[in-house]
Design brief:
Radius of gyration: 34 Å
Shape: elongated
Distance between the termini: 86 Å
Mean pLDDT: 75
Largest sheet: none
Number of helices: 8
Number of strands: 0
Low-confidence stretches: 49-53
Length: about 180
């Protein structure tokens, strides 16, 4: 059943890739160099930049950074997942209304448009979209707005001066307000 098909000769079953692989393995196994026209490899200098450096540090920029194409599969999945019964039911349970998927449809259409336009226009669309999303993110509530910005530092943030003055006065510690227990 499995071994019923027998090749007539080994040369017929070997594809060009197999022949190329066999010749490559033969070259590796031989002591003599296979090619005389090969250029010798010279060691290059190791860059001083760390491995985690951004591309702007490691590569010279020849203009604006080239944007990655939009992930079409991601936008496609987001759009269709918006209409799943679970997604709609959870949204209805939480907010009492049907989930609006228009924004996801606009994202999917935008992604299709970037794929169908020429490269320069697509790059401009991707840069504009990234800038708009970043601006929208900054406009909404974020971690930068948790604390109020101080113009001048606190005078005694850890109470060091208060403890020093209390020690000078002889009380030994800073007076705490009395604790009230509720019965």
């Amino acid at each position: 059943m499995w071994g019923s098909k027998k090749p007539s000769s080994s040369s017929e079953t070997q594809s060009s890739d197999d022949k190329e692989l066999a010749s490559f393995l033969a070259e590796i196994g031989s002591d003599a160099p296979a090619r005389t026209d090969a250029t010798p490899v010279t060691p290059t200098a190791v860059p001083d930049t760390p491995l985690y450096a951004p591309a702007s540090v490691t590569e010279p920029s020849a203009g604006p950074r080239k944007e990655e194409p939009c992930p079409l599969q991601y936008y496609f999945d987001e759009f269709f997942m918006c209409y799943t019964p679970k997604s709609q039911l959870v949204h209805y349970y939480r907010y009492g209304e049907k989930k609006d998927c228009a924004e996801r449809w606009r994202d999917l259409r935008w992604c299709f448009e970037t794929r169908l336009t020429d490269d320069d226009t697509a790059q401009k669309m991707l840069r504009d979209r990234r800038a708009a999303k970043l601006e929208q993110l900054r406009a909404g509530p974020n971690s930068e707005r948790v604390w109020e910005f101080r113009e001048e530092p606190l005078a005694d943030p850890w109470g060091v001066e208060a403890r020093r003055k209390a020690a000078e006065n002889g009380s030994g510690s800073v007076k705490q307000p009395p604790v009230r227990y509720v019965n």
